[in-house]
Amino acid sequence: GYRFWRRYNEYMEFLNNSPMDGFGSEFLWHNGAWMSEAEWLDSLNFLVLVQDNFLKQNLNKMYGAACILDQLPTDCTKEQMLTYAFASTLLGIKTNQNYLALYTADISFTTQVIQPLFNIGIGVPINDYYVIPNSHVYARDFSNAKVLVNPTSNPYVINLQGTFKTLVGDLISEITMGSHTGIILTRL
Hints:
Elements: H1 2-6, H2 8-17, E1 22-26, H3 37-55, E2 62-68, H4 78-92, E3 98-103, H5 107-118, E4 130-131, E5 138-141, E6 145-150, E7 156-165, E8 171-177, E9 181-187
Parallel strand pairs: 1-2, 2-3
Antiparallel strand pairs: 4-5, 5-6, 6-9, 7-8, 7-9
Helix pairs in contact: 3-4
């Protein structure tokens, strides 16, 4: 993401004129350390640009982002990175030509924690991502869910403008988004 923007013209030339039918990115949402908000936003905008340009030209093309859950920032858990990467991807996803590969050597974590995220019925996007006023928290609304990501080192208290259900079943109308966190809330 953020590397792409430094060499934008070269990458766009390659993407637009290459006969390849797909490509992938590693470390789209982290690089072993937390990205700055600007770097994270570059990655998000890269995901959107790939869909609006490379994928839109041919429905047989695909793009995949990889997130390695065993090479994390020192203050991060697998669960935190999993929901952060998953929610960050949902902020920019537009087509089913994308995928998010979540790698870990822990098979039980894959079946018990990762797979259930893919079973959430979020519905269809209602809007593009946006920033919640007076915060640096990014959000996107889906017909059955709301997705939030805080790509900064600061926590933010967010009024959800309605009641939502967390993935563990709690009903909330306000949430404190800790630093470098993502969450998926379902609509009632």
